[in-house]
Specification:
The complex is a heterodimer of chains A (378) and B (95). Chain A is α/β, with parallel strands linked by helices and 378 residues long. In chain A, 34% of the residues lie in helices and 12% in strands. In chain A, helix 2 links the parallel strand 1 and strand 2. In chain A, helix 2 runs parallel beside helix 3 and helix 4 crosses helix 6. The longest helix of chain A is centred in the middle third of the chain and has 15 residues. The radius of gyration of chain A is 20 Å and the shape is globular. Chain B is an alpha+beta fold. Chain B has one domain: Outer Surface Protein A, domain 3, CATH 3.90.930. The N and C termini of chain B lie far apart (37 Å).
């Protein structure tokens, strides 16, 4: 282990990678949504409050932020905030389903410096994608990509990203995703499905099988040099001698964190739950105070116990996997990841009652649509 | 035995790329390139001092000397600086 990784585990003066979900409102209702988005929260940060947070991130010398949601472009002040951030020298990368990128918006986005876009897509065909992201969402994403291409986004700003959450159903499409990205001059980004938000329920049916995990690892080793992963597959490193590129550590509260739409700060985007809540940007001292002094972040920066994994020869490679994945599947945090490639995950999952697993919080899902009921007189 | 470093980068005239920002950290600094969006770790505070002073000196070796980096460490610094040049964190000095 390098001295640098040890340093990073001890935390940085400010996050490297800060995710900011701007709104819980979303036009889609993806079954695996990490933030259980759907409806706007009336307590969401106002434009002025959001700008004050950006001022603070500027003082902390945060280089860039990852904006998400919900669908961030739903906010009426979306462009105002993005332009304000870029004006302060904070680069913006934002995730979108593309619904609000028409020809005009594509040109406006293209004109901005230090802006990067991630279009979410979970299948290379409508059937595979829409099963997870909802009817029409494949066409929506492809149309947005077309607008970005026509606006010359790639030529001016470099490749936008096609962002894929790898599931049981799209894992065989990795080559096709790469081909699709190439077709648009885009870059492929693939990340790990976590049992977070609505994904807590969907995960059990969607997460890749053991054989598919090996497939992802081999694919990344063979073809992953052009692919971004957000370092999210480090649990796969236990599969071989060769580590996947990246920092190979859980960055929660150390180098990453989440600001949610109402200003709550969590250790990472995948742990929206009181247990990982570090404070609110509206509190005295703001974000900087939370980052530097929160008890939770302090604890996460201490050396973590390998616990049940201590005797496993692969621990240095996989670091015990993902905290969020363990938490929302009801597994102890100092034990194997539910997708432990050493086979420990399955046994661990079998030993816990799924009903006892902590439930994700801050659910903003839209209300269930009324199901027509035939009234029958008895 | 004292090895005198003769890495070709030592005679170059370099500066921090105008699109790169440095953020001090306990281990050294983070360098972020706004155009390439690459993030690089400068893993030693001495390296940060040298990088920050490149623009004030005609050559890399002059900057090393001004920062009082002993000659036996010049080789290691040359390697680090060459790698920063490769990743475009540094560029040719223009004045």
């Amino acid at each position: 282990m390098t001295a640098l990784v040890d340093q990073l585990k001890g935390g940085l003066d400010a996050p490297i990678c800060l995710t900011w979900e701007l709104t819980y409102a979303c036009n889609l209702e993806c079954v695996h949504c990490l933030s259980s988005s759907g409806r706007r929260d009336p307590r969401e940060l106002t434009t002025d409050e959001a700008k004050a947070v950006l001022d603070e991130l500027h003082r902390l010398q945060v280089f860039y932020i990852n904006i998400g949601g919900g669908e961030p472009m739903i906010r009426r002040d979306f462009f105002e905030l993005v332009e304000y951030s870029i004006g302060l020298g904070i680069g913006v990368k934002f995730s979108t389903n593309g619904a609000f990128i028409d020809a005009d918006k594509a040109r406006r986005l293209t004109a901005l410096d230090y802006l990067d876009i991630q279009i979410s897509l979970d299948g290379t065909d409508a059937v595979t994608n829409d099963a997870v992201r909802g009817p029409g969402s494949y066409d929506t994403a492809i149309r947005a990509m077309g607008h970005l291409r026509d606006a010359g986004f790639v030529e001016r700003n470099g490749p936008f990203k096609i962002s894929v959450v790898v599931t049981r159903h799209n894992v065989d499409q990795l080559d096709e995703f790469q081909a699709l990205a190439d077709q648009y001059g885009a870059q492929l980004r693939i990340t790990r499905l976590r049992p977070s938000g609505r994904g807590a329920d969907a995960w059990h049916d969607l997460h890749p099988t053991d054989a598919q995990q090996r497939q992802i690892y081999q694919w990344l080793l063979a073809k992953g040099d052009r692919v971004l992963t957000g370092d999210s597959f480090f649990h796969l490193n236990a599969l071989g001698d060769e580590n996947l590129p990246g920092l190979n550590l859980c960055g929660a509260g150390r180098v990453v964190c989440l600001i949610d739409p109402v200003g709550d700060v969590y250790a990472c985007p995948f742990v929206i739950h009181d247990e990982f809540h570090a404070g609110n940007v509206r509190d005295d001292g703001g974000f900087a105070h939370i980052w530097r002094h929160s008890e939770l972040f302090h604890d996460l920066r201490q050396p973590q116990s390998a616990g049940a994994c201590a005797s496993c020869g692969s621990y240095d490679a996989c670091q015990g996997g993902c905290m969020a994945a363990k938490f929302f599947t009801g597994l102890p945090l100092d034990g194997p990841d539910p997708e432990c490639v050493g086979g420990e995950g399955e046994a661990a999952l079998a030993a816990v009652d799924r009903a006892d697993a902590p439930r994700p919080m801050a659910d903003h899902s839209k209300p269930a649509r009324p199901v027509p009921v035939a009234l029958v007189r008895k | 035995m004292t090895v005198t470093a003769d890495h070709p980068v030592l005679d170059r005239s370099l500066a921090l790329h105008p699109q790169v920002a440095l953020r001090p950290e306990p281990f050294g600094a983070l360098a972020y390139h706004y155009d390439t969006r690459r993030l690089v770790f400068l893993k030693h505070v001495d390296l940060v001092r040298v990088v920050e002073s490149l623009d004030d000196h005609d050559t890399v070796v002059a900057a090393l000397t001004a920062c009082r980096i002993p000659p036996e460490r010049h080789g290691a610094f040359a390697t680090a600086i060459a790698s920063l040049l490769d990743s475009e964190m540094l560029c040719d000095r223009t004045r």
